[in-house]
Amino acid sequence: MIRNREEVVFNGDVKNISGLNKKGKFDILPKHANFISLIGQTLIARLVEGQERIFQVENGVLRVLSNKVEVYLGVKTGD
């Protein structure tokens, strides 16, 4: 699930997700360990059907918990 302050912008099954944080590029694969990160720039969701959805991210938080990914866009940070 990917949501901004107003609405859910994507909710569906994906094969994997790629993103960028301050340490560099990362990938979220099935059965990934629990994980939380501030994210920026671009988030790519590769759908089960083969398509890619690309989201421009100014700032946000990505959380992986129990094999589910939640992304909250437009999160203000103290940076």
How many structurally independent domains?
1
Query: What global shape is seen?
Result: globular
Largest sheet: 7 strands, mixed
Flag low-confidence runs.
none
Proportion in β-strands: over 45%
CATH architecture: Sandwich
Strand runs, count: 7
Number of helices: 0
CATH superfamily: F0F1 ATP synthase delta/epsilon subunit, N-terminal
The sequence of SSEs as H and E is: EEEEEEE
Distance between the termini: 25 Å
Radius of gyration: 12 Å
The average pLDDT score comes to 93
Keywords: ATP synthesis, CF(1)
GO cellular component, one term: proton-transporting ATP synthase complex
InterPro entries: ATP_synth_F1_dsu/esu_N, ATPsynth_dsu/esu_N
Organism: Candidatus Woesebacteria bacterium RIFCSPLOWO2_01_FULL_44_14
